[in-house]
Every structure is written in structure tokens, then in C-alpha cells.
From TrEMBL:
It comes from the Eukaryota. One of its GO terms (biological process) is lipid catabolic process. Keywords: Hydrolase, Lipid degradation, Lipid metabolism, Secreted, Signal. GO terms for cellular component: extracellular region. The lineage of its organism: Eukaryota, Viridiplantae, Streptophyta, Embryophyta, Tracheophyta. This is Uncharacterized protein. It is found in: Secreted. GO terms for molecular function: hydrolase activity, acting on ester bonds. Belongs to the 'GDSL' lipolytic enzyme family.
Length: 149
């Protein structure tokens, strides 16, 4: 499994370090990630062709996180700030032993300045394993299909 880079421009750490923005994410970072992910996905085809006894799949973390951030149906009310941390968007200082995390962590997409919450991660894993979305988050097959080989 080759995993693409997630939508890092939406992470509280980079939001906190960037100038004030009205958008939910810092697009500058997304441009570089999209280029990298496209090349990584193309590499999967090359690897599957060159090493036919092995199976390689691409995992699309960028779009799966974007879908969670874009869709209100997942129930997350806090999409820019971390549940645990300090500073702007709770993204300047990571969650340290003496910091008290939020009580309503299921409302947050991000646990700390860098990582998604358990609730957001569980949604991503289900989508990536079963590919149960209109979008394709795995290529050229789902993780479930790969496991059955």
C-alpha cells in the first residue's frame, strides 16, 4: 500500500502558522500535495506492471479527509481547531501531558495540531477499507479486495 499525503493545508498546525485566512485550508500546501499524490498514484501502475507477482494499491488520504471536512453529514462541528493543544486553532503547541483535551472530541475532526480524532479516523478507515463512497479512495482496488487475494 502506498499512501498519499493528506490534506495538510487543513491541519491546525499549518493554519496556525499561516496568515489569517477566511478559507478552511491553506491552498498553497495543497498544490504541492496534489502533484505528489498524482505521481504516487501513477507509480502504482508502474509497480503493478513491473512486479506482476505483487499487488500494489494507492490510498487516497487527501480526498477522504476533504470529504469529511466538506460534508456536514458526518456531524463534525469543529473543523479548523484541534481538540487538544494551545494557541491559534490549538495548533501552535501540541497536546502535552498537562493540557486538558476538549470534552466533546466527537465534534472535532482534529485531535491535535497534526492528527485526526478517533471519530474522523474511523470514518476514513471504513471508507478506505470498503471504498463505500462515490469517490474512489483506493486504486486500483479496495483494501478489502486486496486482502482477499
Amino acid at each position: 500500500m502506498l499512501t498519499g499525503v493528506a490534506a495538510i493545508g487543513c491541519m491546525p498546525y499549518l493554519l496556525a502558522k499561516s496568515p489569517q485566512t477566511s478559507s478552511r485550508c491553506v491552498e498553497y500546501f495543497h498544490s504541492a500535495v496534489r502533484i505528489f499524490n498524482a505521481k504516487l498514484k501513477a507509480l502504482v501502475d508502474d509497480l503493478n506492471r513491473d512486479y506482476s507477482d505483487s499487488k500494489f494499491i494507492y490510498i487516497e488520504f487527501f480526498e477522504s479527509l476533504q470529504e469529511i471536512l466538506d460534508s456536514p453529514s458526518y456531524g463534525f462541528n469543529i473543523k479548523k481547531s484541534a481538540c487538544c493543544g494551545r494557541g491559534r486553532y490549538n495548533g501552535r503547541i501540541p497536546c502535552l501531558p498537562n493540557l486538558i483535551p476538549c470534552r466533546d472530541r466527537d465534534q472535532y475532526v482534529f485531535w491535535d495540531p497534526y492528527h485526526s480524532t478517533e471519530a474522523a479516523s474511523l470514518i476514513q478507515v471504513k471508507k478506505l477499507f470498503n471504498n463505500d463512497s462515490r469517490s474512489s479512495f483506493t486504486y486500483p482496488m479496495t483494501i478489502l479486495e486486496l486482502a482477499k487475494l
